[in-house]
Amino acid sequence: MSQWMLLLPECVLTIFLGVALTADLVLPALPRRVLALLVLLGLAVTAACVWWTPAGEFGGVFLNDGFGRFAKTIVLAAAALVVLCAWDFDLVWLRPWNEFLFLLLASVLGMFFIASGRELVLLYVGLELATFPIVLLTAYQPADPKSAEGGLKFLILAALASAVLLFGLSLIYAATGTTQLTVLSERLHQGAASSPLLLMGLLFLLAGLGFKIVLAPFHTWAPDAYEGAPTPVTVFMSVASKTAGFVLAVRILSVGLPAVRGTWGAVLAVLAAVTMTLGNLAAIPQQNIKRLLAYSSIAQAGYMVMGLVAFKPLGLSALLYYLAAYLFTNVAAFAVVIALERATGSVEIEAYYGLAERSPRLALLMLLALLSLAGIPPLAGFTAKFYLFAAVYGQGYIWLVVLAVLNSALSLYYYLRVIRAIYIHQPEENTPPLPSTPWPLSLVMAVTLLGILLLGVYPGPIVEAARVVVGPLWF
Amino acid sequence: MSTIIGFYLLSALAFVSGLVVVTTRNLLHAVLALAVSSLAVAGLMLTLAAEFLALVLILVYIGAVVVIGVFAVMLTGHFDQPLVPASNELKPLGAATALAFFLLISGVLLIQPPARELPLFEMTVEQIGRLLLTEFVLPFELVSVLLLAAMVGAIVVSKGKED
Amino acid sequence: MTYIAEPAQLVLWLRGGLQQLAVWAGLPAVWGDWLGTVMEIFSLFAFCAVLVMVLVYAERKIAGHMQDRLGPMRVGWHGVLQVVADTIKLIFKESEVPAQADRCVYRAAPYVVFLAGFLALLALPLDKGVLPVHLNVGVIYILAAGTPGVVGILMAGWGSGNKYSLLGGLRSAAQMISYEVPLVLSLLGIVMLGRSLDLQQLVAAQTVPFVLYQPVAFIVFLIAAVAETNRNPFDIPEAESELTAGFHTEYGGIRFAYFFLAEYVKMFVFSALAATLFLGGWRGPVLPGWCWFFIKTGGMLFLFFWFRWTFPRLRADQLMNLGWKILTPLAFLNIIGTALMLMWL
Predict the structure, then answer these.
(1) Which among A434, A391, A384 is positioned nearest to A408, based on CA atoms?
(2) Is residue C30 part of a domain?
(3) Inter-chain contact B142–A137, Cβ cutoff 8 Å?
(4) Pick from C105, C140, C177: which is nearest to B67 by CB?
(5) Residue C214: what pLDDT?
(6) Distance in angstroms (rounded) separating the CA atoms of residues A80 and C323
(7) pLDDT at position C4
(8) Are the C-beta atoms of residues B3 and B60 closer than 8 Å to each other?
(9) Chain B adjacent subunits, 3+ CB pairs under 8 A
(10) What are phi and psi of A62, to 5 degrees?
(11) Quick check: A96 contacting B, CB < 8 Å?
(12) Cβ distance C93 to C253 under 8 Å?
């Protein structure tokens, strides 16, 4: 019975998920704010449970360890920030609110199982649960053709990716006869590693993972989905989904398949190079800030994959740190996007002309977020990139590091384009003054600003935490 | 003997009807061909003594997927013009991909035939049920949340603006 | 011990004979088996045809007497040959294909619908050890075999190229997939009690007929089965005042006969399933098993006829409400109740 205690955070989350779904059935007059607060409370309680629940293993398929906790915390933080972002945003679109929260929590639940899963079937089902609510949320405004288009593209490609991933997993099962990652790893060391069936499975697995973490040849759905989705959903997609995707990759590749690391490491190194270059180049001509940030996040995924390439333990801890830094940075940028979208209804870069005069605070936050994304010291993005590149350099992938540094410089170009629009361009004539930002959004901005600065100048504790949790990943 | 004949007949049926699915211009015919293809695959599973899986395949694919497909075709305005283009300019590329995939997978299977020493499960319903409630209990429970989320989301998205 | 009382022996004896015949003719013994299978299929088909004739006659007679009429009286003694005459008429009648029809789909539809019912028939245990196809998942098999029927009805509705047919087909299909949910759920209680999906074992487990343990499931099953067969009071798909004759409006002759056959075969299958799962199937004192099977099935069939001539037709929305909001929750409650009962008793 005590084994079931390990599932406490997941159970708590499931309860709140049910609450979010049934609240307005029981209390039709429940104000949306109350429900949002309830969900935030649920996330907080879940977070407490995540850290309170003892470490341990559930029948070899579910593992409560530091790595999982770290990932879960990032996901929970992302979800909480998204709820705050969506608080008032949702009013604009008049869409059912409790179903929005329900789907969000469902996705978080899926990510929880990805973070703790140690068995391929569980990981796969978790991945589906993490992905499909986001697909539905992307299409949450069917009246808006862009939302419908983004949702449809996302749906079809996500389904295809799932099929590819599942095919890969089934081949891996066929080659080794197990779905448990630890057993899998043992069997590979005993000699199944060279079987062509396994390599074929690995190929499909990498393609499927590539879809999920948006790597270059498989990235085509991302810009449309990012652009079409309601912006808070885009935030969730870009931060939480990405975290979940990388956690999944770490679990399967580093824990289950370290024996064939040479193969997947080489493939991922190439994919990383292609992804960051392509993402940055494609971001340059974008006029829509959401598309620009979409390509920027593709490029960021390219950097992050380097953490997988650099492998244990330095590379993975750098990856975790990068994910934490990326959480604050990207949410900060999108918080400004949401604030402007609320005020002007536009997500084009022209809407940012002269933002510095209209709202110096929003302008400053955007500036810091974009500089952090580009990796300018002393912000979070710089520290993250520093650790990551150092780890990769230490593993001897010098060409990759050189390319990544060049790419960072390249990315500065289009980030500066936005900054130029904000600080240099004059606002158009008769632009109405921006209305004040609602407090939940202000809270998001304050938290993310703090995060960007803190992770930039005082990275010690998080780095240490990331290092500690990655250590026991292989035992 | 009869199993082998059945295997080839059913494989051929599955292949041909699958080909019809992707080449026919009539959406309804495509869905119906999909039903035939699923039936053939279910038959293949029967020849492999996986009765339960075969029946579940029929229940799910024909009872649900194909029926929903037919409904979708009938209710989404293709009643007057059921003919849609069955290919686009990417056709050669698609064919090449399919061929490459076929060569790859058959090559792999030729180099390394599927391991015979893998335990050949006598998969009865009882064993499947046992596995679902022991080793795979977590995914099994999680799937229920997944289905619920899919259902809720589908209703919300398809309900449109008036709510 | 006679062969009539033990049909299992009869089948085995026939198979053995066919194998010997094959060997005598210089062919592998397995050919004899194949021949036996083919013969069994044909005899089952003949059984279907005769069965449906009997059922139609019975229904017309029962309906007549319920309405204080005599029913068919003209052809043969008390009209027994009426159905034969009707059948002959249907077979020889011209069967047209409407000009606007999707020809291929239109032609295939009746056979798909019929085959669905016919295949389900194969797994019914007529007596201890007697069933044409023995599967350890018989319950699921019967449910699965019936599913292509929905597709067949949709094919008929679409293929006819007629709006009444299309609407009728859509309604039928919607009704069938809606009621399939409570139907399947109501059977789960039985499966839990009998701890098997094998129809033979489920019958063997019924020292007391399961209907006594599962009255709720029985009622849910009965209602859902009537809806599944699209019969009154759930025959909205064929509501003549709204949709003329529903999905088979355009059909005539032998193709119509197949739809007709399918409806009665399905009714028989569901009655037999109810008799098997709830009433103890071939179990019973004195009489041989197959007698009991047919007596119980006959009783269920009578219930079907009785419903048809007693209840008024439901409206489409009432029908959906009944299915989703009453029967489905009821079936779920029944499953929970059964589980609790099994845990504590």
Answers:
(1) A384
(2) no
(3) no
(4) C177
(5) 86
(6) 40
(7) 42
(8) no
(9) A, C
(10) -135, 130
(11) yes
(12) yes
Q: What tokens does B8 get? A: 């080839």
Nearest CA in chain C to B65: C151
- Which one of B114, B118, B161 has the shortest CB-CB distance to A143? B161
| A132 → closest Cβ in B136, B146, B156 | B146
HEC string of chain C? CCCCCCHHHHHHHHHHHHHHHHHHCCCCHHHHHHHHHHHHHHHHHHHHHHHHHHHHHHHHHHHHHHCCCCCCCCCCHHHCCHHHHHHHHHHHCCCCCCCCCCHHHHHHHHHHHHHHHHHHHCCCCCECCECCCCCCCHHHHHHHHHCHHHHHHHHHHHHCCCHHHHHHHHHHHHHHHHHHHHHHHHHHHHHHHHCCCCHHHHHHCCCCCHHHCCHHHHHHHHHHHHHHCCCCCCCHHHCHHHHCCHHHCCCCHHHHHHHHHHHHHHHHHHHHHHHHHHCCCCCCCCCCHHHHHHHHHHHHHHHHHHHHCCCCCCCHHHHHHHHHHHHHHHHHHHHHHHHHHHHHC
Interface confidence, given as ipTM, is 0.88
Residue C228 maps to a domain: yes
Instruction: Test C105 with B59 for CB contact under 8 angstroms.
Output: no
C-alpha distances in Å from residue A109, one per residue of A8, A39, A40, A50, A72 = 12, 13, 14, 12, 10
C18 touches chain B (CB under 8 A): no
Structural tokens at position C231: 């019969």
Tokens of C267: 């009714």
Q: Chain A contact for B147, CB < 8 A?
A: no
In this complex, do B32 and C155 lie within 8 Å of one another by their Cβ atoms? yes
Tell me the nearest-neighbour CA distance from C252 into chain B, angstroms. Answer: 23
Q: Cβ separation of C151 and B62 shorter than 8 Å?
A: yes
Q: Give contacts of B156 with chain A, Cβ < 8 Å.
A: 95-96, 99, 136, 140
Nearest to B157 among A113, A142, A175 (CB): A142
Task: Please state whether at least 3 CB pairs lie below 8 Å between chains C and A.
Answer: no
User: Is C110 a domain residue?
Assistant: yes
Per CB-CB distance under 8 Å, the chain C contacts of B35 are 148, 151
Q: How many CB atoms lie within 10 A of CB C3?
A: 12
Report the residue from B26, B59, B67 with minimal CB separation from C143. Answer: B59
Contact partners, residue C17, CB within 8 Å, separation at least 6: none
Q: Tell me which amino acid residue B140 is.
A: F
pLDDT in tens, A356-409: 888 888 999 999 999 999 988 889 999 999 999 999 988 888 999 999 999 999
- CB of B36 within 8 Å of any CB in chain C? no
Give me the number of domains chain C comprises: 1
Where residue B124 falls (left for φ over 0; alpha for ψ -120 to 50; beta otherwise) is beta
Distance from CA of B97 to the nearest CA of A (A): 14
Indicate whether this model's pTM tops 0.90. no
Taking 70 as the pLDDT cut, the residues of chain B under it are 1, 77-87, 113-123, 160-163
Q: How many CB atoms lie within 10 A of CB A451?
A: 22
Q: Residue B157: closest CA among chain A residues belongs to which residue? A: A140
Q: Which residue, among B152, B155, B162, B163, would best test binding to A if mutated, counting the most A CBs under 10 Å from its CB?
A: B152
**Six token digits for residue A328:** 């604050």
CB A101 within 8 A of CB A269: no
Q: Choose the closest CB to A109 out of B107, B145, B152.
A: B145
C119 assigned to some structural domain: yes
Instruction: Flag residues of chain C having pLDDT under 50.
Output: 1-5
Q: What is the pLDDT of residue C5?
A: 42
Hey, is the C-beta of A115 within 8 angstroms of any chain B C-beta?
no
- Cα–Cα distance, A206 to A161 (Å, whole number): 10
Q: In terms of Cα–Cα distance, which of B114, C312, C157, B136 is closest to A196? A: B114
Residues contacting B77, CB < 8 A, separation 6+: none
**Residue C107 domain boundaries:** 102-344
